[in-house]
Amino acid sequence: MRLVLATRNPGKLREFQRLLGSAATLLSLDDAGVAGDLPEPHTTYADNARAKASQACAAAGLPALADDSGIEVLALDGWPGPQSARWMGEAASDRDRLLGLLDEVRRRCPSDPRARYVAAVALALPGGGEPAVFHGSCSGVLVEPRGAAGFGYDPSFLSDDLGVTFGEASDAAKDGVSHRARALRALLESGALEALPPA
């Protein structure tokens, strides 16, 4: 079956396709002809994921997946959280945000760099109804950037599960423990995709 993934990020599209395997063929917003930005106006991962999935589904006329994810610094009460991709403004790059986050940790909580990645994945179906939401998280600590794999904050996220940063980890290793992997595993285990008609 075909699903729209509410993203234009090629790294995220590849990651989701790897994680879903043959369960679905994913289309980006561009592939599906969905124009414009999908607002993320809410303060929780789940609400942002629901909003994006609903908008993508309505615009494309296909089932849609959306995620909202972020990194949370435990000593900073979970900051930047749902604002992880936006806290430095629209012009900031992934690298800008990564280095900015490390600067904030050095300044505000240098002795406690514990962090976790959190993801909420929503599935919206044509015809309306409340999108189903699935959650995942993984823990680690923030370190100086290491490795060139992944994207976003991955080079500085030293995984408790792997003992290396997500920037150093292979796709297969990361896919076994990441926050998105765990959220999508919950989606697959729910049987929600199997109930969809083929398209």
Would you kindly provide a written description of the structure presented here, covering whatever features stand out?
- This protein is of the alpha/beta class and 199 residues long.
- It has a single domain, classed as Maf protein.
- It is 31% helix and 22% strand.
- The protein contains five helices and seven strands; from the N terminus they run βαβαββαβββαα.
- It has helices at residues 10-20, 45-60, 94-108, 171-177, 179-190, and strands at 2-5, 25-27, 64-73, 79-80, 114-124, 132-142, 157-159.
- Strands 1, 2, 3, 4, 5, 6 and 7 form a seven-stranded mixed beta sheet that branches.
- The longest helix has 16 residues, at 45-60.
- It is globular and about 50 Å long.
- Output the radius of gyration: 17 Å
What value does the average pLDDT take?
A: 93
The end-to-end span amounts to 5 Å
How many structural domains are formed by the residues? 1
User: Mind telling me which CATH architecture this is?
Assistant: Alpha-Beta Complex
